[in-house]
Design goal:
This protein has 209 residues and is of the alpha+beta class. The protein has one domain. Helices cover 31% and strands 17% of the residues. It has six helices and six strands; from the N terminus they run αααβββαβββαα.
Length: 209
């Protein structure tokens, strides 16, 4: 049995409080510095602003050792983090539908990024390929903690099938809570039935890579 889930969780742990702080700082700035900027019928605008200000916060703070911002933020505000010399890549995506990772869509590069071998096929962590992870985030309300979950995708997903994953790690608000969390390593498929709202389609996947 591969020990990759434990290695991934161990490397993600130091990010937990930093990520929540970044999202909370972004929310505070929107609500305090720009009241009325995002109206109730402009959820997409709030999502875009949260993403942009979260990136600013991550630029301004000291990230945990071996973590750094990567990729091209100018590409529709994409946020990406990399660990070490490329052992792990963490791509931020807005949940769609609620609580779910957005599907990859038709973009070939994005579909390829979502598609990778299962962790149980790896036995030597020193010889592994880059572990591509998604940070699925959601502001469930303007007062509750942000919902942050790291998943390791295996497939691009489709309009009626969720993104298959073999690792799902919820990120609670504190490191102490995270260290007590049990994470899911299943990779079962699950059918989804939902209607696409154009605003949600536009805010689901953060970049067009």
């Amino acid at each position: 049995m591969s020990n990759m889930p434990e290695i991934i969780a161990e490397r993600i742990g130091p990010l937990v409080e930093v990520l929540h702080d970044a999202f909370e700082n972004a929310r505070y700035r929107i609500d305090s510095d720009y009241p009325g900027l995002c109206r109730d019928n402009q959820s997409w605008l709030r999502t875009h602003n949260l993403r942009g200000l979260t990136h600013q916060r991550l630029e301004d703070v000291v990230l945990p050792e071996r973590w750094e911002l990567s990729g091209r933020h100018q590409r529709n505000g994409a946020i990406n983090l990399a660990y070490g010399s490329g052992e792990m890549a963490l791509r931020f995506v807005h949940a769609f539908p609620s609580g779910e990772a957005p599907i990859a869509g038709q973009n070939r590069a994005r579909r390829a990024w979502y598609t990778q071998r299962a962790v149980d096929e790896f036995t030597d962590p020193q010889a592994m390929l880059t572990q591509r992870l998604l940070l699925v985030w959601e502001e469930e309300s303007r007062t509750a903690d942000f919902s942050l979950t790291v998943i390791r995708p295996l497939t691009p997903g489709s309009i009626r099938r969720r993104v298959r994953r073999d690792l799902e790690i919820p990120l609670p608000r504190t490191l102490t809570a995270f260290e007590q969390t049990q994470f899911d390593t299943s990779d079962e498929d699950e059918d989804l039935y939902y209607e696409i709202d154009q605003d949600d389609r536009d805010t689901g996947t953060e970049d067009d890579q």
